[in-house]
Amino acid sequence: NLYKKINNKKMNNDKEIKEKQEFLRIHILENGYDADEFMEYLETLKGEKGLKIENWSKNDLIRAVQQFTQMNPRRDNIQINSNNQNHIEVNDRNEIDELQKDIINKLNDKEFLQCKLSEKNGISDEYDLYIKISEPKVIEGNFFSKSYVSYLVETEPLGYQVRRRFSDFIWLHDILKSIYINVIVPPLFKKNNYLYALKDYQIAKRIRTLNKFMEEISRHPLLRNSQMFYDFISMKDDQDFTRKKDEYSKIIVPTKAEDIKTLTGEINISFNFDKEQYAEKVKNLSESNEEIMKRLIKEYKYLNVQLQNVITKIKKISTIWVELYNTSNKYSEGEIITGVYNNFSKFMNDWTKLYETQINLINENIREYYRYIRNEYHSIREYFALYETNKNSFKKISFKLNETKERLFEEKKIDEWGLDKEDLQNKLLLFRDKELSMEKMLPEETKKVKDKKKMFGSYCNSLIDEYKHINNLNAMRHKENVLKFIKEMSNAIIGFHVNLNEMVGNLDALKENA
Question: Is the pTM of this model over 0.90?
């Protein structure tokens, strides 16, 4: 048993060294980099130990190669083939340095796969869309149907005007989420079935939510290009739109990376340990921020209650000043002191309006805004669940396949390897070369594992790309939202300040008169 363990350990070490040597051969030698320069670079990182491949883990070696290739361009003339379409010939060392970083990265650590090109709709990428949801209209039900609210959807600069009910918006959200599996679709809260009759304030709140939902879809480069989104904002006839919805609902959800739709017709399927770690951080951050946002919204709700209590108290004081003004005016009409009482009454009213403005701004610019951001983090977590499912599925069948191949190779049952006739004629070669055997055996099962690996890789990269897209949007959204809050709050304070100055003037007049 001890001999067997030692022998297995040696075989694993030899296998790992071969994998690292093959990696270096492909990424250093075949890509035209100088091997001596690369060895010198490894020596600068780890001293003499860096010259022995056994002292490098595979992940560390990958990072070292990526860093070296970015700093040291190839010596010979190379041809960069991006998706077999764009060819860039490089004849000089200086020209390589001028290549865009994304191309260099694509060469070094990205693997792209041909997939479905996203359909183009009637929306040009050259201009921004402005979608407005307004004019709620109650449609009375009959014996066979319930009453519902329809909303006007206006799209500029295209000039489209259609009416949609809330269930249509939910349909749009759900169909985009199911078809564009590589996208974090903007959140939309679900319909509350217990609301038999929406009140005005609930409808107003729903309109704000729908406006936000449509705004974020129109900002997403892939979703805004989807035909279902275009039909949603453009089709006037309800029956035609219903038929379209039925057609879209029959579309098969992508189960392979090749079936995923993108703007470029290719998708990044490469992944490594660093990307998995990054994805895990995204999950942890989304969970933490969702909880923090929940507490933030709750505290602002309490603040609103406290401000409302203050408003009630101020209004009571204001009525007392009014009473004092009326009494004084009754017995000493025209006295300056009476005007001061009137001023105090106005001052308290303006103070009330200032707090009411604060409450409105908190509700619209903080509570509702951060409720949306919180829901967005929830959408990230939902997407991460899909990522986790694909990762676990890939690793599970990959491990099982490797176990099966190891067993088949040890038992030398070549008839169970699933080889074609040509490979079966090379039995002796296959029995001697385990790596070649593992590659050749069980081709159908191997293809399934490779498909799972591509799918997991596409989810991993899409999660990272979508999270970065949301972060970039948030930087812009936070700025817009905070500036709006400050502007409206400043206007309210300016009005309050004017009233205070008027009150000070009256007090000065009262003093002079005394």
Answer: no
